[in-house]
Specification:
heterodimer, A: mainly alpha, Arc Repressor Mutant, subunit A, B: 2 domains, 5 helices
């Protein structure tokens, strides 16, 4: 059973990545913070007694469900606010800027912390995050679980509630789409 | 570059972007603390609960003087139950013997016939013929 300190350490280790992943999905930082908080509360209340090694899978599953719940609520809300939708806060405002205007391709071999390179790395990161956010939800979910959270195929399939074959397909498509998108924006890793 | 190498590089870059401004970091910390506060209390282990049970049984003072009714009453009930079962079994056995005796004594057949070997052979051969 996970002790309080184990649960705390786990949440601390995972909260920022979970926040970023929620931002990729919902493209709203406040909503993403709410989603992460919701997932943390659900994990602690319902699964806090489970062994520490089970927490990552449970948390990711809960977080994905929380994101899905958020989209459902948004859908219901949008039914009532269709007429006012143009006044609602935009979800894709950041996409207006064109990274190509400011970004040069990087070879990634030079890790000196010169300000210009720091800026460049920050811009590469921003572009990757943007392109990840543009991926279809299931592809992004599979790719992030596999390569950011470092879950294996079986674990990812359990989190996503699909077959291992689907995970591999989603991952492969996501990797190819992401690589193509980065290449199109002049980024080579 | 294959998919795994690509994934590794993406992870490396994404991990560089995990720093958050203080407001978001504080919000996540508050969420974490709230979650920990709502964590279900850890159930007491078997050994610990046995220790607590034993402590309650013996009482706060310790020794024989501290034995509480919660220990004595179950023991007394157990003894009474065992005694009742023993008595009931004895009565059952006596009743069976009594019934056999009654059937023997009230039957038409003289009781000596049961001791006669020839009569027993007669019963066996008759049963075999039937």
């Amino acid at each position: 059973m996970a002790s309080r300190s184990e649960l705390s350490a786990f949440l601390e280790s995972v909260e920022r990545r979970a926040f970023k992943q929620a931002v990729f999905a919902v493209r709203d930082e406040e909503a993403a913070l709410d989603i992460v908080q919701d997932a943390m509360l659900r994990l602690a209340e319902k699964y806090g007694h489970r062994p520490a090694e089970e927490l990552p899978l449970l948390f990711h599953r809960i977080a994905q469900n929380a994101i899905r719940d958020w989209f459902r609520r948004q859908k219901v809300r949008s039914l009532w606010t269709t007429l006012l939708s143009s006044l609602a806060p935009g979800r894709g405002e950041d996409e207006d800027q064109d990274p190509l205007e400011t970004l040069q391709a990087t070879d990634g071999s030079n890790f000196q912390e010169a300000p210009a390179e720091q800026l460049e790395r920050a811009q590469v990161l921003e572009i990757i995050e943007q392109e990840l956010a543009r991926l279809p939800a299931r592809q992004r979910q599979a790719f992030v679980m596999r390569y950011w959270e470092e879950l294996d195929v079986a674990e990812t399939a359990r989190v996503m509630g699909c077959s291992e074959g689907s995970v591999k397909t989603h991952c492969s498509r996501a990797a190819h789409a992401l690589a193509a998108a980065l290449k199109a924006r002049g980024i080579t890793l | 570059m294959n998919e795994y190498q690509f994934g590794d590089k993406i992870r490396h870059i994404l991990n560089q972007g995990l720093s958050l401004d203080s407001r978001k970091a504080a919000r996540l910390q508050a969420a974490r603390e709230l979650a920990l506060a709502r964590k279900r209390p850890e159930p007491v282990g078997v050994l610990a609960s046995a220790g607590v049970w034993a402590g309650n049984m013996v009482g706060d003072f310790g020794g024989w003087t501290g034995l509480s009714l919660r220990l004595l009453v179950p023991i007394a009930m157990l003894l009474i139950g065992l005694g009742a079962i023993y008595t009931w079994q004895q009565n059952q056995r006596a009743a069976e013997v009594e019934e056999i005796d009654t059937q023997l004594l009230t039957g038409d057949l003289p009781i000596d016939a049961y001791l006669d070997r020839g009569f027993q052979n007669y019963l066996k051969t008759r049963a075999a013929e039937e």
